[in-house]
Structures are given as structure tokens and as C-alpha cells.
Request: fold
Amino acid sequence: MEFMYHFKFDNLFVINIFVIGQMILLSLFYASILELKVQKKIVKHSVCWALFILGVQFFIDYTQFLKFNLFAITITSLLIVAFALLHFYNMLTEHKTYYYITIAVIFFMLGSTILYLVGNLTLSLSNDVKYLSWTLNAFLFLIYQLFILYEWKISFSKKFSSD
Reply:
């Protein structure tokens, strides 16, 4: 995106590729760790429906793919949050696997989605306010990555050091 920005290319479509790819990958992750078949089916069917709905939206108006598409961001992020909450619910009675990753996903996806939705409202505000919202999103992303690192440290680093 930075390369495209410096060469004055429109790079907003990259966010759509990112959020759709993120939804697919995190959905595969949650489908792999959910134990009930009905929950796995819910995840798979939800992703297929979301991809279908987004495909129809892009087919009807392809310019939506080239824009900052709040609908795509919202639907993909909220689906991931729903899958994370489903896994979180399962952890109430089972062993807590990927606990910190799930907390990070819920925290980051909800916060980031709210910031994106509010982002359009800040267009008429000063550049400092716009910069603050993007800085807050970067901070949320940093916290997200630190939670994932912590989960890796407590779950996997011992396995690699004992080999």
C-alpha cells in the first residue's frame, strides 16, 4: 500500500482484499478449533453467505470494491467476532485453548470496526482528529499482536525449546 501511495495509485481496494482474506483465514482457524460439527457448519455457511453477499455487491456496483467499503469491513469483522465469541463460549466448560488470541480478536475487531465506522464521520473534522483515530487503530493492532505473541509464548515456545 505504501508503494502504491508514493506512486499515486489508488490503494483503497487493498483494504477490501485484506478484510475478506482476514475473514477467510480466521474463519478457517476457528472452524479448525471448534469441536461441535454444528458450529463448524455455522462458520462455513456464514463465510460462504458473506462471500456471496459481497460478491453480489461487487457485481452490482464494482466501484464498491475500489472504495473504502464499510459494509465489507463490518460484515467480515462482525463474523469473525461472532466466531471468536462462539469459541469463547465453548471455553467456559472446556480447556482454554487459544484464550488470549480469542480475546485479542474480539477486542481488536470490535474496536477497529467501530473506528472504521466512525472514520467516515471524522472526514469533516480536523486532520488531528483523523490522525488520532488511525493512531488508536494502530495501537489496537499492536495490542492484538502482543496478545498473539503472549499466546504463542505460553502455548508453543516450551514445545520448541524442549525439542
